[in-house]
């Protein structure tokens, strides 16, 4: 898991991406090996969440937190990877080992195999500001969000825009802030921060300038244009229509005419190494085929009624 925002923002308020997007292979294995050493040194059997602060230009790091227990983060990771941490912890406590436990998704591999993801997930905090008018909108030491959302895509941009739409039903995605922004706007993080970034990019701020102002990695801020690439980056037809002075129906027709559509992909937690016995699915524009056969029917449509908002991790 990687926090998009710099050190100093509570993970519960930050936007978190899995797997990490800015770490090199050497950095990843450095932090991984240190985490294992920490767990072994403390004699932890079960779940251990180790949090790091890593210098962006060298391998200097600090351990800023160790959670030897199930938490909101572990609940999120279980959902992201399909690896049932709580179930595994109970079995380990009863004296079983990882080689004896079967992966519930694949039904063919054991629990000692690490999940391998070929998709990206985003966790974003959700706060109802209309119900807390007197509460400051700035991020601080106290967690103010009252829920969170999880989105899945084949790219960071796709999952990112989906998350923004779920966090606030009044936005269409990575929408620019309605007013002109200045450098001073980035002095303190708040719940409008992402949309300030969008406005700054619209005002021709360079990636380097924004990265220096926000301490957000440049690779997170970069992007690409055009219709197919826009759909890959999870721009909705409504968004594209707004920026091209068209109607959403015109964009939809043009997209269909050019064969641009969403595909059904399956989460298997092993990066396609074997076929899962059961799983769940998501739509993406970055694929070339469906993982399951579509059922085309001319019968009366059906609707599946489920829960209302259920915050991941609660």
Q: Features of this protein?
A:
314 residues; alpha+beta
List the helices and strands and how they pair.
Blueprint: E1 2-3, E2 16-18, H1 25-42, E3 49-54, E4 61-67, H2 72-81, H3 85-93, E5 120-126, E6 147-153, H4 156-167, H5 193-202, H6 207-214, H7 218-221, H8 227-232, H9 237-244, H10 248-257, E7 263-266, E8 281-284
Structure description:
There is one protein chain. With 314 residues, this protein is an alpha+beta fold. It has a domain at 20-69. Helix content is 30%, strand content 13%. It is built from ten helices and eight strands. It has helices spanning 25-42, 72-81, 85-93, 156-167, 193-202, 207-214, 218-221, 227-232, 237-244, 248-257; strands at 2-3, 16-18, 49-54, 61-67, 120-126, 147-153, 263-266, 281-284. Strands 1-2-5-6 form a four-stranded antiparallel beta sheet. A two-stranded antiparallel sheet has the order 3-4. A hairpin with a 6-residue loop joins strand 3 and strand 4 (61-67). The longest helix has 18 residues, at 25-42. It starts with a strand and ends in a 30-residue tail after the last strand. The relative contact order is 0.13.
Short summary of the structure?
With about 325 residues, this protein is of the alpha+beta class. The protein has a domain at about 20-70. Helix content is about 30%, strand content about 15%.
Element string (H = helix, E = strand): EEHEEHHEEHHHHHHHEE
How large a portion of the residues is in β-strands, by DSSP E? Answer: 5-15%
Largest sheet, if any? 4 strands, antiparallel
Spatial separation of the terminal alpha carbons: 18 Å
Number of strands: 8
Radius of gyration: 21 Å
Shape: globular
Tell me roughly what share of residues is in helical segments.
25-40%
Biggest sheet: strand arrangement: 1-2-5-6
Mean pLDDT value: 81
Structural class: alpha+beta
- Tally the helices: 10
Low-confidence stretches: none
């Amino acid at each position: 898991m990687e926090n998009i925002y710099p050190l100093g923002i509570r993970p519960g308020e930050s936007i978190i991406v899995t797997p990490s997007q800015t770490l090199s292979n050497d950095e990843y294995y450095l932090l991984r090996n240190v985490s294992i050493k920490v767990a072994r040194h403390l004699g932890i059997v079960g779940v251990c969440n180790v949090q790091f602060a890593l210098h962006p230009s060298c391998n200097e790091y600090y351990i800023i937190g160790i959670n030897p227990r199930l938490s909101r983060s572990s609940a999120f990771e279980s959902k992201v990877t399909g690896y049932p941490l709580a179930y595994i912890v109970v079995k380990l406590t009863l004296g079983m080992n990882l080689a004896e436990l079967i992966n519930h998704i694949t039904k063919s591999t054991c629990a000692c195999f690490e999940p391998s993801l070929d998709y990206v997930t985003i966790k974003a905090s959700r706060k109802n500001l209309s119900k807390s008018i007197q509460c400051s909108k700035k991020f601080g030491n106290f967690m103010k969000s009252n829920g969170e959302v999880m989105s899945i895509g084949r790219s960071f941009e796709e999952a990112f825009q989906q998350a923004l739409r779920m966090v606030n039903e009044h936005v269409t995605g990575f929408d620019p802030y309605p007013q002109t922004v200045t450098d001073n706007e980035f002095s303190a993080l708040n719940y409008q921060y992402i949309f300030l970034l969008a406005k700054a990019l619209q005002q021709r701020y360079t990636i380097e300038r924004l990265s220096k102002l926000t301490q957000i990695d440049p690779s997170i801020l970069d992007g690409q244009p055009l219709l197919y690439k826009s759909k890959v980056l999870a721009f909705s037809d409504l968004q594209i229509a707004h920026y091209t002075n068209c109607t959403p129906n015109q964009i939809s027709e043009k997209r269909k005419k050019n064969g641009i559509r969403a595909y059904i992909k399956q989460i298997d937690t092993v990066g396609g190494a074997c076929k899962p016995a059961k799983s769940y699915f998501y739509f993406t524009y970055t694929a070339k085929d469906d993982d399951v056969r579509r059922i085309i029917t001319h019968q009366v449509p059906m609707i599946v009624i489920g829960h209302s908002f259920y915050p991941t991790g609660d």
